[in-house]
Amino acid sequence: MNLRLILETLRQSAPKSRAVLAELTGLNKASVSSMIRDLIAAGLVREMGVPEMQSEAGRPAINLQLNPEAGYTISAEIGVGYISVIVIGFNFDIVAQRYESINPETSVDECLKNFTALLADVYQQARRFGRRIFGIAVGVPGLVDMERGYLLFAPNLQWRDVPLRDMLQPHFDVPILVSNEANMAAFGENYFGEGQHSRLLLYVSAGVGLGGGIVIKGQLLTGATGLASEFGHMTVVPDGLSCRCGNSGCWETQVSETAVLRRVREMILAGGRTPLSRWKEQLTIRHVVNAAEAGDEVANAALAETGRWLGIGLASLINALNPEHVVFGGSLSVAHTILVPHIRAEIERRALTWMWDQVSFRIAKHTANAAVMGGAALIHDRIVTHPLTWQSSMGYAL
Ligand SMILES: [Zn+2]
């Protein structure tokens, strides 16, 4: 716990000397010095070259920081229509990044073959730098049994029962952590995005689907079996449109890229005049956002209605959870200037004032990279929590 305290203090406020660390953590100087010795030996902390100030005794106080060369984390995401991988240093600088589009019709086996190849390629590349690799985080848009690294169901990929970690592990000799991508993103926003130090952060991500996560005092809320925060599948219209999860009227059917495009098409069919009609089946969310920003009424109305539904669900979540921060991310958040006034208006109408008044509503810091940055944060947090035994903490036996 004390090692964690020191590493966390350095993560958030380095550079610091041993004396200042003792002061900030309330630990005595001798034990700080001895723990710093262990952390330097483990390669996680390093002394900085030039002393910045003199200690009382006149000896230069040497500043410490997390060792940016401690090692790399690889973080990857299997999305709907793409795979993405980053390599990130211990100081969170991205040192390599790869992205590939995948035809959403591609079979599970084919997609995983491509994914494993991309991951292996990046892994070999990172190995060539000669630094250790802490682990690999893999985010997927579905229900994940984190203990087993097993994907139970991904509605928007239509994947079921994929033993992801077991399939990937033979190719890599570092721990692999599989998680829901929105949970990862929520954790990342709390770790180094919007809403740091939050007592309760509610993250909602709207894109191809609607997902999210809850982080309470730095801990991801996993639920009893790791499946918590499937907000997108809360029923909001009892006899509504059918959802890819098997239910009907899920929140996701009202708030997603598909929902925005559906609204535009419905308005065109009802006689709405918009330059968007020329795109027909090729219409994308980018077209709608661009048109809305250029003042197109149909595009604005489709986004307004989507914002309204986002607000309806958020009001209930705010009432249920009493969050300190609500962070809105995902691909739809690029349209936040148009969406947010409608989201806010609906929340104001429906949420209990005593709760909503206290909420800090933010737009996510990480959009396209949200899941991979969050995955890196999850692994980083494991290392900081178990600095000398992080491998076994990730369920990886050497
Ligand atoms: Zn659903």
Question: Would you kindly provide a written description of the structure presented here, covering whatever features stand out?
Answer:
There is one protein chain. Helix content is 39%, strand content 22%. It folds into 3 domains: 2-66, Arc Repressor Mutant, subunit A (Orthogonal Bundle), CATH 1.10.10.10; 72-186 and 370-393, Nucleotidyltransferase, domain 5, CATH 3.30.420.40; 196-363, Nucleotidyltransferase, domain 5. It contains 13 helices and 18 strands. It has helices at residues 2-13, 18-25, 29-41, 108-128, 164-168, 181-192, 257-269, 285-293, 297-321, 336-350, 353-356, 370-385, 390-393, and strands spanning 16-17, 45-47, 53-54, 60-61, 63-66, 72-78, 82-89, 94-101, 133-140, 143-145, 150-154, 159-162, 176-180, 200-206, 210-216, 219-220, 325-329, 360-363. 42% of the residues are buried. The strands form 5 sheets. Strands 8-7-6-9-13 form a 5-stranded mixed sheet, with helices on both faces. Strands 16-15-14-17-18 form a 5-stranded mixed sheet, with helices on both faces. Strands 1-5-2 form a 3-stranded antiparallel sheet. It binds zinc ion. Zinc ion is lined by residues 233, 243, 245, 247, 250, 252.
For the largest sheet, list the strands in their spatial order.
Answer: 8-7-6-9-13
Structural class: alpha+beta
Q: What is the CATH architecture annotation of the largest domain? A: 2-Layer Sandwich
Q: What is the CATH topology classification name of the largest domain?
A: Nucleotidyltransferase, domain 5
- Output the CATH homologous superfamily of the largest domain: ATPase, nucleotide binding domain
Q: Low-confidence parts, pLDDT < 50 over ≥5 residues? A: none
* Cα end-to-end separation: 23 Å
